[in-house]
Specification:
By secondary structure, this protein is mainly α. The protein has 18 helices and no strands. The protein has 2 domains: 401 residues, Up-down Bundle (Growth Hormone, Chain: A); 56 residues.
Length: 471
């Protein structure tokens, strides 16, 4: 689910782009909201559909995490390239192309006869999302300026939060009433409205700018894919085979090759290594990976536990997650004001630690017992802690690097958030292979691990961030 939520640096990326005036402001915002809602809704509803997909397509514990990861992998690896493609070919053009690819892939998902076909279609969805997400934000940034830009981005972020909140319960109802394939067919009318609105009202921007780092994107995708495959193989079998070690070693080699390639490109790189000269940026990158990794793993596993271990319907499991988005949406504004007074160091320290306490509460979760006492307290505390971390992360990433790198830094941090969820989902197989009481025990162990990761994220913020922003 973390992949479905608009990350703080999604918003920061839009705010970092220089803007101007626009002839159709309302329609421009509507087009970007419709486009990005495809990625938000699809990411959140798939979590509650995993048991149904596994039963219908005979997917085992090793295969089910790939329903999530086949989407997250290209999205994480190609997010920066998607933004660069918009700068080069035109943001509206790439946005519409991404929506069209996402829609065709959604039809492929809905009609997939086997799990491998579904995974291939999910990967194409991830490519489409990597095209439409950064360019929906880039269009907002180039179309508005000053207070108008803040209002536009705020409206976009609110729409993303609403879509993320409504996705699991509505998707769960669709899975129970119609079937899991309906969640992918739902994308077609939304995509048609987004394309029509963008074609008619959105002005082209940034055409001919920037360069494309195809080799860097290929190396990043290959490195992530190899590492995630190896981790999924290990977690599903509870042991490291020869193939696992070969995958891990190959992934590390590809990752090193990616870093060396980016180093040679210097300022033209997809991920300029100059960013890591900032101690705060390094700390924020580690914090984001740990925190969103913990969040992504647990919010994939919790619906699975409730449905498989507790007999919840998909709709009930979806509603079980609803308080998460409600608390974040309600509390984020308050923490944003607090950050303006005290700086980002303490909110980014205490927010993840509180999140860790929420994960610790989930070690008491019993899918056979009551939701109100066993599950809800943990979800509410996790959401409260995340609300304390999301808002300050936006401005802190921007202030941790110089003005030339603000857009790249925010985009990279957003990709790191999704990569954290990607790795966590790969490791989720270790829980999904269990049954009965062993499933609950494995979930509790995963919740404890997530608690440790979240607390480590908070301690990282305390150790690496200045006492005040920019200080």
């Amino acid at each position: 689910m973390s992949s479905a939520l608009p990350t703080p640096c999604d918003r920061a990326h839009a705010e970092a782009v220089d803007g101007g005036s626009v002839r159709h402001p309302g329609w421009t915002i509507a087009a970007t909201m419709l486009a990005s809602s495809l990625a938000f809704v699809d990411g959140s509803v798939t979590n509650v559909a995993l048991p149904a997909i596994g039963g219908d397509l005979h997917g085992g514990a090793a295969g089910l995490p790939w329903v999530i990861n086949a989407y997250l992998l290209p999205l994480s690896a190609l997010l920066l390239l998607g933004g660069a493609a918009g700068d080069h070919f035109g943001r509206r053009r790439v946005l519409i192309g991404g929506i069209m690819l996402f829609t065709l892939a959604s039809i492929g998902c809905a009609s997939a006869p086997t799990l491998p076909v579904l995974l291939a279609a999910r990967a194409l969805q991830g490519v489409g999302a990597a095209m439409l997400m950064p360019n929906s934000l880039g269009i907002l940034g180039s179309s508005f300026k000053g207070e108008a830009r803040g209002h536009a981005v705020g409206t976009w972020a609110a729409a993303g939060a609403i879509a993320s909140a409504l996705g699991p319960p509505f998707g769960g109802w669709l899975v129970g009433a119609v079937g899991w394939r309906a969640i992918f067919y739902l994308n077609i009318p939304i995509a048609a409205a987004a394309i029509a609105t963008a074609w008619r009202y959105v002005e082209e921007s940034a055409e001919g700018e920037g360069a494309l780092d195809w080799r860097g994107a290929a190396l990043a995708t290959a490195a992530l894919g190899t590492l995630i495959w190896a981790l999924t193989l290990w977690s599903s079998r509870h042991q490291a085979s020869v193939n696992t070690w070969l995958g891990l070693g190959g992934g590390v080699v590809l990752l090193v090759a990616f870093v060396l390639h980016e180093r040679r490109l210097e300022g033209r790189a997809m991920m300029p290594l100059a960013l890591f000269a900032s101690r705060s940026f390094v700390g924020l990158t580690l914090l984001t990976f740990l925190l969103y990794g913990a969040l992504g793993g647990l919010l994939v596993l919790l619906p699975y536990l409730l449905i498989v271990g507790g007999g919840y319907s998909p709709a009930q499991a979806g509603f079980a997650l609803l308080p998460f988005s409600i608390v974040i949406g309600t509390a984020s504004r308050l923490t944003g004001r607090l950050t303006a007074l005290v700086g980002a160091r303490w909110p980014l320290t205490l927010g993840p630690i509180i999140t860790g306490l929420g994960f610790a509460l989930l070690t008491r979760a019993d899918p056979q017992a009551g939701y109100w006492t066993g599950v809800l307290p943990g979800i509410a505390v996790i959401a409260l802690g995340m609300a304390g971390a999301v808002a300050p992360l936006t401005t802190t990433v921007l202030s941790s690097v110089d003005d030339r790198h603000t857009g790249t830094a925010s985009g990279f941090n957003s990709a790191i958030a999704r990569t954290g969820g990607l790795v966590a989902t790969a490791l989720a197989s270790a829980v999904m292979v269990e049954h009965g009481t062993e499933l609950a025990g494995a979930f509790h162990a995963a919740a404890l691990l997530a608690a440790c990761l979240a607390v480590a994220a908070g301690l990282t913020a305390f150790a690496t961030l200045p006492r005040r922003d920019g200080g």
